[in-house]
Write a structure and sequence with these properties.
It is built from three helices and four strands. The protein is of the alpha+beta class. The protein has a domain of about 60 residues. The chain has a four-stranded antiparallel β-sheet, with helices on one face. Strand 2 and strand 3 form a beta hairpin. It is globular and about 35 Å long. The termini are far apart.
Length: about 130
Amino acid sequence: MALVGCGMTPEPPPVQAPSPAQASSPATPALVAEASPEPIPNAEPLSLVGLATDSLEQIFGRPTLVRHDRGAEVWQYGKGDCVLDLFLYVNDGEPVPRVSYLETRDRNGEPSPGDGCLLALRLGNGAGS
């Protein structure tokens, strides 16, 4: 046990060398995430708000339907029973439209949980069915 007096600092504990078993065992490889040119949103639908058209195409592919409606572009993606409607508007001073509002629904028009729908569309890369 070391005594510490006024103005004295304790000595650091000695460093032990790894045992032969530790030194010969292979190191656990670190998981490295690859960088993506555009952040891909999680399954949370609101993470799409603010994205531009090029980002949407990177994530979901080409939309199954594009409609122009009173200053808005409506992009639709569908897979199975999931339909995602994205409403894009050009903001002041920006040249490209961005997602301002979205809806997820089933093919009958009933609201559906957005997280499962987005996951299905991302896995299917937006291919309509």
